[in-house]
């Protein structure tokens, strides 16, 4: 995420309709049993690696993915946000899921994020590569490298992020979840972020309640960083 000085009075708001699902934490998944799957969600905020994009308003999110039997998948998302003017967000993603053994899985992915509808949010356009692994759908670890396509950083054009997440089942439908991450941003610096919360799942429905925060460096240098905020998401899988 570009390191943007916090203005005295932020002028960018975010709300409306967004067709998107791209987790702040890239997660290695198990093999898919269907050729096509989709998700539709309502979220209280739009968040990328601990940073709130725009002002907190409800967002509709969605994802459509295509799989083959060899472990390859392609996902596409298209979104719209309105905040005085209209903005869109598009994500294209290709991935390969593999199995190490009965407990461990891995995933390698390439994705491109685009915000074509607004000059400010175009700074977030980036190409990203991720390698991640997961243990029994309980622990995940991912390493990402990305480059912002509309910035010129001759000294260090590539950025990186390291993300870890955990899920601890409490009951058949309830789990505790948590995540920690650190990311390098431009022009120079890095920040840490994390979350803790709970999830509920029943059939195709899932709900998440999380408390997210970023460190003091991010709060001083990155617009949208927060000392702490609750977020809610309700997801329907198809």
TrEMBL record:
<protein>
    <recommendedName>
        <fullName>Outer membrane protein beta-barrel domain-containing protein</fullName>
    </recommendedName>
</protein>
<feature type="signal peptide">
    <location>
        <begin position="1"/>
        <end position="33"/>
    </location>
</feature>
<keyword id="KW-0732">Signal</keyword>
